[in-house]
């Protein structure tokens, strides 16, 4: 198998990105890519074309073509597998699948292509591995920086301890020489304030030398102190929290896989990621929210999907439009249009337009994430085959310990992203001992929850396992298990096919965003 080039071209023949994997002249590759649009026929069921010297294997991606140019001796099954992997990578690096978005992320796409194909041969990698390789993070570099920062912090603490010892010896010397408090009020008060401030800084550092700083205050002279020595400076005081440097140090340790048992405030960014800003004149968002309750012994307690199609228009002149949509073959879904929509037009032609065609759709700023609701739908079922992700939990006790095996099984309907399985645990003094896991884990000591995260679930990892051990506990302590994930495909398979301008002219440029998210997904 030899892949000569991997390219992304427009349907008009314009080359957006092309990466060659063998030695070939620019004139030849340009000639091969220029000939491709002329060879595409209509009504064909296959997506490959053979000429005298090369074979074109291609896949449409909206208004573009993802194209592999191979020699005729290449294995077409392996070529199709390579093409399928590249088609998953392109949306990962270019959110907008148009000429502008592809050109903006051209170099990222070329780097990703290089990780998949080497010297014309496919590498045995997955989407998650390609993303990890392109990030180029170095474990050794992180460890070296952590060690250097730790040495710097320790040196600073030693300096502060020495300075406090010198100040304390000067104060004791002046007190023994003068036998009174006069020098304390004149020259020593400022040193005490500085020492107090240094103590505050040291107590918010890494923690080295805190006892020495506190001991330095236990030796202050008895009796009535002066006003300057009694009142600390405004705005200063003993800070008992961790500093920003310490938080960065702890976060770096967590990134290296260390378990840090501390109270951590929950971050909203973990559950929802901010949507990218709107750049297209018209944006249509297809969103489905999943509410599922699964029984721990098997079966579906409840399964409910609620979807919406919303419209966002940036410019007022683009408001006089109608939206042509295409629905999937799922007969269990019932659609309902907005009261201002023309219901007959949607029922016959699947076109979403206002009852009054002279009235434009409202416009909004790019920061308006809600948009205008055009269509909503709902699906309910008790069929377990419709569930995208099932969880099996098997706790077993042996002596003073409980062994827990948790397994996930994902259906082939969707590729799931950012999967997090949260397992409640009884109150523990230390983190559980995880012996085997497909993915990553994190223990939240504040809420006593073990989080199992998997970046991507696709055909390479439709099932996974996690095993851990905790002190003896009842089997009901591990429920309810909460799950959250996202997907770029939906149950309705609703797609926007066209934008129809009502006042003539060219239709405005539009983008479609599709996502499936979990609102409440539990195993009880």
TrEMBL record:
Q: Which Pfam families match?
A: Adap_comp_sub
Q: Does the keyword Phosphoprotein belong to this entry?
A: no
* Predominant localisation class: cytoplasm
Alphabetically sorted, this entry's keywords are:
Cytoplasm, Cytoplasmic vesicle, ER-Golgi transport, Golgi apparatus, Membrane, Protein transport, Transport
> Residue ranges of the MHD domain?
279-524
Output compositional bias ranges, type Basic and acidic residues: 161-178
Q: Which compartments does it reside in?
A: Cytoplasm; Cytoplasmic vesicle, COPI-coated vesicle membrane; Golgi apparatus membrane
Query: Which GO biological process annotations does it have?
Result: endoplasmic reticulum to Golgi vesicle-mediated transport; Golgi localization; protein transport; retrograde vesicle-mediated transport, Golgi to endoplasmic reticulum
**PROSITE patterns reported in the protein's UniProt record:** MHD (PS51072)
Annotated coiled-coil segments of the chain: none
Membrane topology, record value: Peripheral membrane protein
Q: Which InterPro entries match?
A: AP2_Mu_C_sf (IPR036168), Coatomer_dsu (IPR027059), Longin-like_dom_sf (IPR011012), MHD (IPR028565)
Q: Which GO terms describe its cellular component?
A: COPI vesicle coat; Golgi membrane
Role summary: The coatomer is a cytosolic protein complex that binds to dilysine motifs and reversibly associates with Golgi non-clathrin-coated vesicles, which further mediate biosynthetic protein transport from the ER, via the Golgi up to the trans Golgi network. Coatomer complex is required for budding from Golgi membranes, and is essential for the retrograde Golgi-to-ER transport of dilysine-tagged proteins.
Subunit-structure text: Oligomeric complex that consists of at least the alpha, beta, beta', gamma, delta, epsilon and zeta subunits.
Q: Which family does it belong to?
A: Belongs to the adaptor complexes medium subunit family. Delta-COP subfamily.
Q: What is this protein called?
A: Coatomer subunit delta
Recorded source organism is: Pisum sativum
